[in-house]
Design a protein that fits this description.
It is a single chain. The protein has helices spanning 2-34, 44-51, 68-71, 177-189, and strands at residues 39-40, 57-60, 63-66, 76-83, 92-98, 103-109, 112-118, 132-135, 140-149, 152-162, 167-170, 173-174, 196-197. The protein is an alpha+beta fold and 199 residues long. It folds into two domains: 1-35; 39-197, no CATH class. Strands 1, 2, 3, 4, 5, 6, 7 and 13 form an eight-stranded mixed beta sheet that branches. The longest helix has 33 residues, at 2-34. The protein is globular and about 50 Å long. The structure holds calcium ion (CA). Calcium ion is lined by residues 39, 84-86, 88, 90, 92.
Length: 199
């Protein structure tokens, strides 16, 4: 009888320990979800300081603490705009470099700035809602959305127009070429961002 009582006690203890573990892992999951960094708006003043090198960019790939000019080893800064590309309520700084017109996007979250490099053919003709054009070849192009978070850039294709393979897709659904053309002309009508020349 005593043995049975001890066995019961051990069993209860094991149940309690495993419940505790479950609570701990749930707490870890909650912490990870809370770690989503809060985006910070880039003001016109901060944009100027980033452009003239008074403020350095914290992260660019595996490099740290670079000025915009140092990041732009592929050209010289030509023009810029401040726009909320991923519609999270905070503006990013987009700098276009000459002669390629390739661009970098600088995003600030919780005081840490991160720059992303995007060739023009990946993200061109940027609209005020952050949608932009892409082109893979003479036959394949489209429109995409961008999302920047925790140092990651995600490009989501919302229009795919491929005359070579006969693929026409809008918001992940196959459509006719005509329907795809209508979606492309609606995109054309959207207001483009306003570029400011860099002296
Ligand atoms: Ca944003």
């Amino acid at each position: 009888m005593k043995k049975l009582f001890i066995l019961l006690l051990v069993a209860c203890a094991l149940v309690l320990v495993s419940c505790g573990e479950n609570e701990a892992s749930q707490a870890e999951i909650n912490n990870a979800e809370e770690k989503q960094l809060i985006p910070s708006d880039i003001s016109e003043n901060m944009a100027q300081q980033l452009l003239n090198g008074e403020i350095k960019v914290d992260n660019y790939g595996d490099k740290n603490n670079l000025t915009v000019a140092e990041i732009g080893y592929f050209g010289t800064p030509l023009k810029y705009t401040l726009v909320d590309l991923d519609e999270d309520g905070a503006r990013e700084l987009v700098v276009v470099f000459a002669p390629s017109e390739d661009r970098i996007i600088i995003d600030v979250s919780e005081g840490t700035s991160t720059a992303y490099y995007l060739p023009i053919r990946w993200y061109s003709d940027i609209k005020k809602d952050g949608t932009a054009g892409w082109s893979a070849s003479a036959f394949e192009h489209g429109i995409r959305k961008i999302k920047l978070s925790n140092g990651e850039v995600e490009l989501e294709d919302i229009i795919v127009y491929n005359t070579n393979d006969g693929i026409f897709r809008v918001n992940g659904k196959d459509v006719t070429k005509e329907e795809c053309n209508i979606a492309l002309s609606r995109q054309d009508e959207k207001e483009a961002v306003e570029w400011i020349d860099i002296e």
